[in-house]
Every structure is written in C-alpha cells, then in structure tokens.
Amino acid sequence: xxxxxxxxxxxxxxxxxxxxxxxxxxxxxxxxxxxxxxxxxxxxxxxxxxxxxxxxxxxxxxxxxxxxxxxxxxxxxxxxxxxxxxxxxxxxxxxxxxxxxxxxxxxxxxxxxxxxxxxxxxxxxxxxxxxxxxxxxxxxxxxxxxxxxxxxxxxxxxxxxxxxxxxxxxxxxxxxxxxxxxxxxxxxxxxxxxxxxxxxxxxxxxxxxxxxxxxxxxxxxxxxxxxxxxxxxxxxxxxxxxxxxxxxxxxxxxxxxxxxxxxxxxxxxxxxxxxxxxxxxxxxxxxxxxxxxxxxxxxxxxxxxxxxxxxxxxxxxxxxxxxxxxxxxxxxxxxxxxxxxxxxxxxxxxxxxxxxxxxxxxxxxxxxxxxxxxxxxxxxxxxxxxxxxxxxxxxxxxxxxxxxxxxxxxxxxxxxxxxxxxxxxxxxxxxxxxxxxxxxxxxxxxxxxxxxxxxxxxxxxxxxxxxxxxxxxxxxxxxxxxxxxxxxxxxxxxxxxxxxx
Length: 501
What we know:
501 residues, alpha/beta, disordered C terminus, elongated, 4 domains, Rossmann fold, six-stranded mixed β-sheet, seven-stranded mixed β-sheet, 48% helix
C-alpha cells in the first residue's frame, strides 16, 4: 500500500465521518479512494455543475440540498464533494455539514470527503471535520511515472540506471507537474545524465516560484563581499562541506538555519546570499507581504504552499527578510498571522534536513522567545555597527567595486569621518563621490568622500536610542557576528557635544 493510501486509511480507522482532503491532484486522490473502497465499490460524487451522482433532483447542484439528501438516507460508503470551498460562507451548508457529522458518525463505513486544492474551513467546523494534508507523490509513484513517460520517447535511449535519479529529482511536486516537466525535458536535445537532471531541476524551479511570493534570487555574493562579521563568516565557511545528502547518510548534523538580527544596513541580507553561494545551493526569498495580500488566495494556504514548494527544491536556502514583520510579530498581530506563526514553528521542527532557513530581523526586541530558542535555529547572530577595522575593510570592498585603488585613499581620514556608520552608508557615500567626480570628468578621491560624509547624518545618530536598545537586548541573547565592539555611543555623544559647541 502506498503512502497516500496508508494516510487516508489510517484516518478512516479512527471513524472520522467527514474528512477534508487538501490536494490539487484530484485524479490521484480519487484513485486512492477507489483502491481503499474496493474496485467494485461505487463512490458517489458531488460537483456544482452536475449535482449529486444518481440523484434525480436537479436542485442537488446546491451543496446544502445534496447534503440533505444524504442525511435523509444515510448509508455506508464514500461520498466525495469536489470544490466545496467557494460555498463555505453559506450558513445552510455549514449547518448541513454539522448535521452530516452527527448523522454519519453512527453509520459504520460512511465517510464524506471534501476534496479541494484550496484550504478554507470555517472556525465553527474545525471540531467536526478532520483535515488530511495529502503528501506529494512518493518515490515509487514518480518512478512509475518516469518509466511510463520515457517509454513514449523510444528514440531518446534513456538508460534504466538514470530513471530512478530522474524520479528523485522530481520529488516534491504533483504528479501533473512532474508529467509536464518530463515531457518538457525529454522533448529537448540535452540527453546526458547531468544535463537531464539539471533541466529537471530548472523546470521544477520555474514551477515552484510561479506563484510570485517565492522568488528565486541569483546569488554571486562571495565572502570577500562581506566586510567584517568574522565570526559569522567562519560559521558559514565551516559548514560549507556538510550541507548535502552525503552528510545525512553519514549521520552528520546538517545545519538547519540561522537568525541574523541587528542594526539596519550592516549586511544581514547580504549574508543570506553568501550562504547560498558558498554552499552552492539555490536561494529563494519568501515575500510574506504577498502571502498576506490575498492576491494568491487564503494566506494560510499560500504559506503552506510556499513551504511545500521550497521542500520540493531541496537542497535550498529559504530567505525570510525582516521576519518580525513577515510573520506578524507586531501590535496588530491577527488570528491568521498567529496561525501562520504556529505553522512556521512546527515546520521548522519537522522540515526536510536540506532546507536551510536564513532569517533576518531588525526589531529584535519584539521577537517571541519560541522563535529564538535553541532548536529552531542553529545560531542567533547579532550584527552590530562596524568598528574602525571593519569600516576600513568595507571601504576597500566598495572602492574596488567602483573601480578605485584603495591604496590611493587616506583611510585614517575616512575612519574619522565615518565613525558610527553602517555598511550601506559607506557604500552610498563612495557611489556619491564617484558620481560627483564623474560629472567633473576626473577620478574621485578622499576629499570627495570626506566632503560628502560631512553632509550625511548616519543612522547611529538619527536612531541612537533604538540602536542602544538593540545592543542592550542582544548582549546576552545572541552571538556577536564579529569580533569588533561596534559603536561606542559615549564617543558619538562627545563628538556631537563638541560639534555643537
């Protein structure tokens, strides 16, 4: 018996009278129900276009009427209501489902299934309907599909030894999607082992990110693009060789995720990109604003779909930027956000080992304890404002990326002008100096940067109190990302007082 049959049959043994089968794979689920019921058993189905099977009443296209007919004549068997979710705001239907629950629970072998690709369940029915989240196709399912599709391309001469690897590369997507991927790949000209598997992964990537809220982010960011953050960079480097299937097979502890929090503009998002590049895996950014926008339907369903999509793309890095906003840790947190947060915590505990979560946060003081405790993330890093040595490294990085020779600049002078600056501010002042010099048809120099620096007010001054709160909060709650001490606020205060006098 396959995994899907086992999951459904297990719930039937518990005698749940109504089950919600959440899946876009209608044919696959119906085949499973038929196997469980018996090949000769009759499964009665309802749709809004045809009403209830074997009913002489055309009014059964109304789901509430169809339920009334079943309740009047309860009997053992399987009853499947397809795409019922659009009608879930009808009070008559909700009452009908509750009546069906109380009626069918006394009839042994009677089960009503709600089959839908969209999850939507009123709170009032939560205790009456058992939810079954249909798993993706198993390896055996995908092997059978691959053999069937490959047999249609006899001229391709695909060796049998490659079929299982092709099937494994398809894991995590639906049977329909896998079928489309195989036809797309096999109709092409690339037939080597490497090219076939790469094509499958690339096509899968397109399918998984098609919804819009899960964005593939190309990453060419290297460690030498990151200024400072020596402890964080060491952590990333030390784990670069164990985030793979071989490590899992050998029983090694594979990294699960990191939470990088701290001052804005200090390289947190950059580090997420570096992880993907150094570990040689794809990076996907989950846009929670789009998840909550309702553009892609129910936010909870969209969030679950995003998690299933990233699972299908493993090994991969899932990047959640500003997680405190994305998962709703604000004063305006609502019920949906609370449910999504709970689902995220559960998923973090149970997710596949080759999905690594790189999360960033700015307002760390509002993060709940459940998120930052050990077990969710391998490490929680605090990114502080860069010290003199780190700012000098940042200047070298941005000067070189703007075509300048760092040796021709007076670093001590630049360090004095930019005390308390973050990496983003250093990058922007270098860019501004280059633009100013380009307008005058000359190379930019130390004086250009210094002049512009005096005109800029860094974040450490405009948000001094907030940054101090961040530093105090993180003192004994997070690991410092760098060896430097960051900003000394007493120095900044003294400079401000001296400047004012």
